[in-house]
Design goal:
The complex is a heterodimer of chains A (113) and B (113). Chain A is mainly beta. Chain A has no helices and 11 strands. The radius of gyration of chain B is 13 Å and the shape is globular.
């Protein structure tokens, strides 16, 4: 059973637009929530991560919003660029479980120029 | 510095053969994880090594899968009597002690004919 549910499966956005990807989890033991970006033929690369003691984290054009009570978190990509076209995975892990990652199913983002 | 490396990058084998996949983690990283990425199952945890402790094998899908880590560094994932459902990309990630950021290698794409 998938511990992290991710949506949408894919999205298309115009250059300069905002991409939003949502994830939900059930396990309240999770205490680390990273987002990974993956290009074809490459391994996932950490994009940004958040812990549940903050509700938002921003790094450049990428922002994570976290809602602990709803057990949901989302990735916002502002001013989307063609180079952002990739597959994005949310994930969750816990210190008590040695930070083994549980991944969402992934979202393929296509940015049209 | 050098990232996580994996070899081979591609492996094609016949059903029933054994295969060995290699992972060289980032120097000094004590934690090493293997994941599998397949179309049907997404990204799933396989096995975890931390220093000289006994590995956490809880994610291995069958007893045909095994892994070892020599000298706390290089790791080898072995799949015996390969089946077509073993076809996937096998990813290795490493992490520093007491940190939770995992750095992924490029993966080995395994195709079982």
């Amino acid at each position: 059973q998938q511990q992290v549910k991710q949506s949408p499966q894919s999205l298309i956005v115009q250059k300069g637009g905002i991409s939003i990807i949502n994830c939900a989890y059930e396990n309240t033991a999770f205490d680390y929530f990273p987002w990974y970006q993956q290009f074809p033929g490459k391994g996932p690369a950490l994009l940004i991560a958040i812990r549940p003691d903050v509700s938002e984290k921003k790094e450049g054009r990428f922002t994570i919003s976290f809602n602990k009570s709803a057990k949901q978190f989302s990735l916002h990509i502002m001013d989307s660029q063609p180079g952002d076209s990739a597959t994005y995975f949310c994930a969750a892990s816990s210190r008590s479980n040695d930070y083994k990652l549980s991944f969402g199913a992934g979202t393929t983002v296509t940015v049209r120029a | 510095g050098a990232g996580v490396s994996q070899s081979p990058s591609n492996k094609v084998t016949e059903k029933g053969k054994d295969v060995e996949l290699r992972c060289d983690p980032i120097s000094g990283h004590t934690a090493l994880y293997w994941y599998r990425q397949s179309l049907g199952q997404g990204l799933e945890f396989l096995i975890y090594f931390q220093g000289n402790s006994a590995p956490d094998k809880s994610g291995l899908p069958s007893d045909r899968f095994s892994a070892e880590r020599t000298g706390g560094s290089v790791s080898t994932l072995t799949i015996q009597r390969t089946q077509q459902e073993d076809s996937a990309v096998y990813l290795c990630a490493s992490s520093p002690w007491s940190d939770n950021e995992q750095f992924f290698g490029p993966g080995t794409r395994l195709t079982v004919l």
